[in-house]
Model the fold of this input.
Amino acid sequence: MLFWAFGDAGAAAGVVNLTGLWIVIASTLAAAPVQAAVVAAPSAPTALVEHAPKPADARLERAAGAIDEGRFADALVLVGSVQTDVKIPGVDIDWAAYLEARALVGLGRGDDGEAKVRERFRESPNGYTWAALVAILATRGLYEKAASAILDLEEETLIYANRLRPTIIDAIVASLDGANAKLRDRVIVRLVEGRYTGPSGRRVPDLLRLRYINLLLRERRVEDAVRQTDALESPAILSMLLTDKSFEPLWEHPSLRGLLAPGALVARVERGVQTQLESQTMNASDWLDLMRSLRAIGQSEEAVRLGLHALEQARKEKRPAGPALRLEIASAYSDLGQTWAARRTARELLREVVSAPASLRIAIADVLEVSGDDEGAILLLSSLGSAAKLPEALKIEVCAAHDLDRAGKRDAALAELAALVDTAPAQALAAFVCVGESEKAAGVLTGMFKRPELRMTAILTAQLYTDWARPGSDLNDSRYRMKALVASASVQDAIKPYARTMALPFTNVNARVN
Done:
């Protein structure tokens, strides 16, 4: 049992993970940067830079929520009403400028949005206004400019970078490939050696450190790389380290061999969870990361407790908790076999979020389907209109219809999804596993190994994970279908040039029960 030393921070609006992936979607590290996580949200989240713990004007909170829901015009009205107030404090002026810029970008007025944050930075150069500018550059896809802004910081102002969320840093670094690889490496070195931690962290984020380790290996600095591995603590990154052949030069080192001892990997993850729990400042992303780590090591009950605590903190601070925490709690309930609690949590969220966007409805449908309410999932998907044709929605429909033995509906959705296999291979793979089409599933997975941008996803998918929840499950359970798929000759042949398959002591949160 972990000792919980909770900080005082509550949970703000977060990102909804529609696929249930706890892994980080990444490309091969040897020659290309890790890709940012493929995560769908109700819309582009505002929480890209750190802002004041409590805004003086609640209208800014509402504007941030409107942006999260894709209501950019509404957000502009709210921000504009605040900006006309002559008594607005400086921190709220800074945040208002960023929210205005974010709304303008959302409306397709990127140049206007960038101009707004540049103007505010000139008027009030500080960590927040600098980070707001970099975040807007990244949101607009101007990654080289964003990278240059990081490199241009003086040593005494490098701390400004900690205002940027790790997701923004990941997006910037991941975008710099090919001709920009040298720029990418310079940014990685500057941030890691400058001890970038993000707004609430205590150490360099694991994904960024893993990129740095890869860079050290490319420079043949093996011992330096080994020393860096001791700081890695998240299940996804540890899995990458131990399976991707980019890191093969490290595998025989005693410190890494030690990670394969019984209980060693779980203990490493627990160490990271404990350290983070002792932090006095945590945001929604931190809560979610901790919950996913706990679920990965089979401690879903602890994940539920942590999520409920985060929700209570948000209530006390009168902050919106956001849907992601609730959905993660629901998923943890499902892990525990408490499917009634999972369904209740998902349905309460659906009732409470007014005009829930399609992506949130799809996320809720996913929870309903995984927790056994296939009828409810299909009914919710039927309310989506054209969004029901999105790959994630089609995947859910395939699985739910299969469970209900509605072959016509299942086959129609599966045919639509199969036609999208090039652009949505993860969803197609999951659907084929759901219906027991092992040969087609193997074909999709082996095809993913051939695409550098999907290779790490394929590597992490093709692992053997501990089944904490149902060690004696029926062989029809998708967890066991996945294990059989991984063990197949075609998948093993496809993985060998790039990775190895291991029995990792983490749950495969991708798996579902039919």
Notes: The beta strands are 464-466, 503-507. Residues 398 and 410 are 5 Å apart (CA to CA). The two ends are 31 Å apart (CA to CA). The chain has a mean pLDDT of 85.
